[in-house]
Amino acid sequence: MNMMPFPDLVRVDARDKVRGAVAFGADDARPELAHGAFAVATIGKGRLLALDVAAAEAVDGVRLVLTHENIGTVKSAGFVMGGGYGFQSHIPLLAPEIAYRGEPIALVIADTLETAIHAASLVRATYEEASFAVTLDAPGVEVIDQAQTPLAHFIPPVSVGDADAAFAAAPVKIDARFSSAPQHQNPIELLSTVAEWRDGRLVIHEGTQNAEAVRHGVATALGIASDIVDVISPFVGGGFGQKNSMQGPTVLAAEAARRIGQPVKIVVPRAQVYHVGSFRPANRHHVRLGADRSGRMVAAIHEVQAQTSRHDLFPGEYATTSSRLYGIADFRGKDELMRTDAQTPGYMRAPFEHMACFAFESCVDELAYALGIDPVELRLANDTQVDAVTGKPLSSRHVGECLRRGAAMFGWDRRRVPAASMRADDGSLLGWGVAIGTYAGLRAPAMARLTLAADGTVVVGVGIHEMGQGARTALAAVLARKLGIAPEKVAAVIGDTRAAPQHLTAGSWGTATAIPVVEAAADALLAELAALSSGGPSNKDPAQILREAGRTELTVEVGGKAPGQPDAIYDRLKAGLPSMGGPVYPDFVTYSYIAHFVEVRVEATTRRVRVPRVVSVADCGRVISPRTAASQVRGGVVWGIGAALREASEVDSRYGGFLNADLAEYALPVNADIGTIEVAFVDEPDTRFNSAGVKGLGEVSMVGVAAAIANAVHHATGKRLRDLPIRIEDVL
Ligand code: MOS
Fold first, then answer.
1. CA-CA distance, 419 to 718, in Å (whole number)?
2. Residue 697 half-sphere exposure, CB side, CA atoms within 13 Å?
3. For 141-163, what is each residue's pLDDT tens digit?
4. Is the separation of the CB atoms in 214 and 86 below 8 Å?
5. Which of 121, 362, 471, 697 could tie 620 with a disulfide, CB 3.0–4.6 Å?
6. CB 278 within 8 A of CB 49
7. Cα-to-centroid distance, 339 and ligand 1 (Å)
8. Is ligand 1 within 6 A of the CB of residue 711?
């Protein structure tokens, strides 16, 4: 196989995107569309005693008001981590019970969006209120040991050796607690759906990371056959986990469209997305890390409590990540889930890894100071090529190279070790921090269909969704190289259930899922072309061979799955159920890695924390699309800056819900907050993991950033800050 580095291909859909030529789910503006708007619950928990929709129904142009009283037989499609299809098991409007503030209680469908919004504001509810708990320490929170739930079957608690005894015996100990506020994903594209019944089929246009789950979930909820449902999602305007399974409004749009016999569009406004969609749960950590005096980490205990809802158990996988950072022989993890009165939290970029590594890598920095060892050297001294949890070999691990290269690029050797010992020219306190991150190497099954036409175009249909990460560019890059054609000749039909089964694209497994299968399909196509041109090596271009053979087109289909998966996995794939494998495979374990080096400046008077400079070096296996890969890392670093210094979904225990539910009040880093972000890749193919040698990148990009920032803030100020986000008042 050609393992030469890939060229710096420009993003193949960049031109269409900047011209607005790309159609997102809500871009449909046909006059025959009816529009939906929700009325939402204004209590923290309870039940509807009465719902008066007469005034809403009386508004000219209102076509339908859906409530629990007329919703009929629509039912839950289940929770995605419980064998179902929804981000939560709870679909609004199915019952009078109110699970949390902001839950929709009525859906108004009208001829115009303005009419729908106005009429929804006229819905009057009478409630019976119940007490509720929305913070981790509130009375009434139920604490559940994840190990005692069915989740333990696929997320077993980490337990290697005797961590408690080893920690007790360790000569050097770090013992610290960490926390993060809940956060929301905030993709620019809101949750939005156009649902249309046409010739006996239900067609759904929606930005989603999981078209197949939307298809099967809506079919389940409406009680119809999934084979009459098409879900079309060629572009997603940001997912970040929020769009990784079926959303309640999608079901309600389809039901409303069925009733009025007209296509229905619902765009959930930002403030409602904060309660209708998922979020990163509040979570807190207790880490104990023990080492010997030479700097060998000998024991660690990582205990986590994370928020879930009353109606679903959103799993925690925190210690599964921190236990993979180093070769620590004795490690114990514990995940507890805290039932609160909120919607079910969900996967938000690096859902567990970000906070697990923030907590653990902060402790590693503290250990470096306790031992008087350079933080980079301490990490290198605890590197491993064996997975400490299973004892299996790692298919590839180049985090040492990430650290060494990053240190050189950053100029780490110029760092003065004592805290608060460096100053910038403008008098700011200067701090330099480092941390590493890791993320599981996962792979889902996929089917690829490749069609070569006589005009030289190649159409690839495969299961992957383009949410900005560069899926089309990566597909074009591999097919151009394999087939010796121009990247412009490749057209990808993705995010479309009509083209190929569309497994959830998440968990940074998109490339490792689609690329090996598409490369195998290209090999199959080349083999058929060789047969057509009566064998022998050929330097003709593929279309020429096709034309000379008198054929108008040639199609091949190839499937692929994770190592060790049974053939029955393809049935799960087609059923829209999560089917990924890894990171533990029969013969090896796969993780991606990254090292981040961060400079912070803390202004001497205001104590404002700035991040002018970041160097990040990633080990994501072979880099298929250098430009979009580097963009992924920059985006991850920006997100890490947001997570460390800005983002918090504010909760008030008196009211429930989330208070700062808009982009003005939910603080995010803006362009002026971002300095230089230098990105480099080890670019070593991992061909044990898959034939293309690729590992995941999207999420590992942000893992460790927050720790590197907090470590840099400590270096600048001498303060250890363990609760995110870090605010000005914390560094006063
Ligand atoms: Mo991502 S948070 O795995 O969709």
1. 5
2. 33
3. 999 999 999 999 989 999 999 99
4. no
5. 697
6. no
7. 22
8. no
Cβ–ligand 1 contact at 244 (below 6 Å): yes
Q: Are strands 264-267 and 34-40 parallel, antiparallel or unpaired?
A: parallel
φ, ψ dihedrals at 358, nearest 5°: -60, -50
Predicted TM-score (pTM) of the model is 0.97
Burial of 310 (0-12, 13-18, 19+ CB in 10 A): middle
Report phi then psi at 134, rounded to 5: -125, 0
| pLDDT of res. 457 | 97
C-alpha 355 to ligand 1 mean position (Å): 14
Is the CB of residue 433 below 6 angstroms from any atom belonging to ligand 1? no
CB of 364 within 8 A of CB of 157? no
pLDDT at 549: 92
Confidence (pLDDT) at 535? 60
For a substitution probing ligand 1, which of 245, 464, 699 has the most ligand atoms within 8 Å of its CB?
699
Cα(91) to centroid of ligand 1, in Å? 21
- The tens digit of pLDDT for each residue in 267-279 reads 999 999 999 999 9
Is 699 catalytic? The answer is yes
Residue 10 tokens read as 């420009």
Of 186, 236, 347, 442, which is best to mutate to test ligand 1, by the most ligand atoms within 8 angstroms of its C-beta? 347
How far is Cα 524 from Cα 326, in angstroms, rounded to an integer? 41
245 in contact with ligand 1, CB cutoff 6 A: no
Comparing 2-11, 284-293, 492-501, 513-522, the range with the smallest average pLDDT is 2-11
What is the rounded average pLDDT of the residues 318-336? 97
Whether 241 lines ligand 1, by a CB cut-off of 6 Å, is yes
Longest dimension (CA), the chain: 79
Is residue 300 scored above 90 in pLDDT?
yes
Give dist(CA 334, CA 317) in Å, integer. 9
DSSP secondary structure of 237-293: S--TTTTSSB-HHHHHHHHHHHHHTS-EEEE--HHHHHHHS--BPPEEEEEEEEE-T
Question: What is the pairing mode between strands 490-493 and 458-462?
Answer: parallel
Question: CB of 347 closer than 6 A to ligand 1?
Answer: yes
Question: Is the CB of 465 inside a 6 Å radius of any atom of ligand 1?
Answer: no
Which residue's alpha carbon is nearest to atom 4 within ligand 1?
A: 241
Instruction: Find, among 518, 529, 454, 445, the residue nearest to 482 by Cα.
Output: 518
For residue 504, the ligand 1 atom closest to its alpha carbon is 4
Q: Which atom of ligand 1 is nearest to the CA of 346?
A: 2
pLDDT in tens, 400-410: 999 999 999 99
475 Cα: distance to centroid of ligand 1 (angstroms)? 20
Burial label, 28 (beta-carbon count in 10 A; 0-12, 13-18, 19+): middle
Ligand 1 probe mutation, 233, 246, 279, 349, most atoms within 8 A of CB? 349
Report how far residue 122's alpha carbon sits from residue 372's, in angstroms, rounded to the nearest whole number. 66
Q: What average pLDDT is seen over the chain? A: 97
* Site to substitute for ligand 1 among 80, 81, 184, 244, most atoms within 8 A of C-beta: 244
Question: How many CB atoms are closer than 10 A to CB 537?
Answer: 6
Using a pLDDT cut of 90, give the percent of the chain over it.
Answer: 98
Is 469 a pocket residue for ligand 1 (Cβ < 6 Å)? no
Given a cut of 80, whether residue 369 has pLDDT beyond it is yes
